[in-house]
Design goal:
The protein is α+β, with helices and mostly antiparallel strands. Helix content is 28%, strand content 24%. It has eleven helices and 17 strands. Bound molecules: adenosine-5'-diphosphate and magnesium ion.
Length: 382
């Protein structure tokens, strides 16, 4: 936050100024860059004045290049990182101020809306949203609390349960228990039955997730998850279930949120589950069926639960809601919630945009709708 007097005041453009913020300190830095590259490319320059703002892996804000190639996955799968050199800050009047070392700060003018294309901690988790609330800037997507809850798989489950929504049985391993009561942890996990999934509470892109088939492998899996987060979730495996996802989007007229077609993810190529490689690397034999081939009552249930999950977390704007669908003869409910993503992967080939494209809303229209929703929404308590 700069308190120095800016040198120049650019003439106020009549196009809304949209700052696309991406990168950041989380393990999903590069995924965020790739998503942001697509969003920037889709924003109509005739309609919006787009400013790309990157956050480096050590948390510095910089003005970034809008060159799509700079923010794309390299030909050999190289991951993009924020590398801009000009430091930029959002000041308390919602202006973006560029402060080059040794130079008088200059302002880029007031921001009308921020599009936080951020995944994971320090971006998707309410921290950036809090900063924007303090500065009185409108922004795309979920507010402070729902962003925070949507990033924390433990609190998310607790809110689903409070609404009576179906989730898989789980236990939480916190640092104190892990350090002082290993036997208690082992017992709690054993009682879930194997296999279990061990996950960092606040990560994404399948980072730090391990399927554990036998009690003896638990310690290594918890240690792996703890590399990402000291709080770890251990969950009963959805053995034999299908994985489906759906998009939820607010309406410009403020009516009940709209749902997209349902998609099914079928992971092949030797992946035990939908891991990082299956999600992002090319030629991984992960196939998507949009719409998913599901009985009508199951599709209906997915849509209904998606809206209930969206409301349980008080999400605004958009969310992707992920489910497990069990067979008819399973002892589990047919449709069980896995998670809500308040800022899902947003490349043109990501699940969320593809589900909307299959529902008749193309990528540029989707991005435009999100910006319009944010522009139409107030700041502060709402
Ligand atoms: N309880 C579970 N049973 C079966 N598969 C699971 C379970 N939890 C996670 N997975 C697999 O791991 C993937 C990533 O887990 P998820 O909880 O969605 O975390 P992330 O936020 O990283 O996407 C899922 O898409 C699924 O393939
Ligand atoms: Mg997931």
């Amino acid at each position: 936050m700069s308190t120095r007097t800016p040198q120049t005041q650019k003439p106020r453009s009549d196009r809304p100024r949209v700052a696309v913020v991406f990168g950041g300190r989380s393990s999903e830095h590069s995924i965020s860059c790739i998503s942001a590259g697509s969003v920037i490319g889709a924003l109509d320059p005739e309609k919006y004045d787009v400013v790309p703002v990157g956050i480096t892996t050590d948390g510095r804000w910089v003005l970034e290049s809008a060159d799509p190639a700079h923010l794309a996955l390299g030909p050999g799968g190289e991951l993009p990182v924020v590398s801009g050199a000009s430091p930029v800050a959002l000041d308390a009047t919602a202006a973006l101020v560029v402060a080059e070392p040794g130079e008088v700060p200059r302002t880029l003018g007031e921001v009308d809306v921020v599009f936080p294309v951020m995944h994971g901690p320090w971006g998707q988790d309410g921290t950036l949203q809090g900063l924007l609330e303090l500065a009185g800037v409108r922004y795309v997507g979920a507010g402070v609390l729902s962003s925070a809850v949507g990033t924390d798989k433990v609190f998310m489950k607790q809110l689903f349960q409070a609404r009576g929504l179906p989730v898989l049985p789980y236990t939480v391993v916190r640092p104190r228990e892990w350090e002082r009561d290993r036997a208690g942890v082992q017992e709690a996990v054993d009682s879930l039955g194997y296999p279990v999934f061990v996950k960092p509470a606040r990560a994404g892109s399948s980072f730090g997730i391990t399927r554990v088939d036998a009690p003896g492998d638990l310690v290594a899996a918890v240690e792996e998850a703890r590399r990402f987060d000291p709080k770890v979730l251990v969950e009963a495996a959805a053995t034999g279930a299908r994985e489906v996802e759906i998009g939820v989007l607010d309406r410009l007229d403020g009516g009940l949120p709209e749902t997209s077609e349902v998609a099914e993810i079928r992971v092949g190529g030797g992946h035990a589950f939908y891991d990082f490689a299956a999600k992002y690397l090319p030629e991984q034999q992960t196939s998507l069926d949009i719409p998913a081939e599901l009985p009508e009552d199951i599709t209906h249930r997915v849509r209904e639960l998606a809206v209930q999950a969206f409301e349980a977390l008080d999400v605004e704007g958009l969310a992707r809601v992920d489910f497990f669908v069990f067979a008819e003869d399973s002892t589990r409910p047919r449709v069980v919630l896995n998670e809500v993503e308040t800022m899902p992967g947003f490349t043109a080939t990501s699940m969320f945009p593809r589900m909307w494209a299959a529902s008749g809303l193309d990528y540029p229209s989707l991005v435009d709708r999100l910006v319009q929703l944010a522009l139409g929404r107030g700041t502060g308590l709402r």
